[in-house]
Amino acid sequence: MIIIYGTRTKLKIDKNIGVRKCENCHHTVEQALAREKLSFTLFYIPFLILTKRRMILCPCCGEAKSMSYKEYKQMKESLGDN
Ligand SMILES: [Zn+2]
Asked: How many angstroms separate the alpha carbon of residue 39 from the centre of ligand 1?
């Protein structure tokens, strides 16, 4: 029997945080909170999903500013639930 397994990295956009100035490209664009998820798959079915990294994503230059879980949570809460 052959066991097919592997890992997959996926980027999930959590929430738009509105228009901000990017520290990297200095463009004022709409940025988003995103999470990079790492999933372990068995026969292409994910059985374990971990959050690898949390970040603010700039769609203009692709810069991802990493942030801690605490910062991420705070920012998400300050934006409200809508
Ligand atoms: Zn940028």
From this structure: 27
CB atoms within 10 A of CB 29: 14
DSSP state of 75: H
Distances (CA, A) of 26 to 22, 23, 71: 5, 6, 22
Q: Measured in angstroms, how far is the CA atom of residue 80 from the centroid of ligand 1?
A: 24
Other C-beta atoms within 10 Å of 44: how many?
9
Map out the domains of the chain as residue ranges: 5-78
Spacing, Cα 27 to ligand 1 middle (Å): 6
The Cβ of residue 35 has, within 10 Å, a number of other Cβ atoms equal to 16
The length of the chain in residues reads: 82
Q: How remote is the CA of residue 45 from the centroid of ligand 1, in Å? A: 34
How do residues 31-68 score in pLDDT, each as one tens digit? Answer: 999 999 999 999 999 999 999 999 999 989 988 999 99
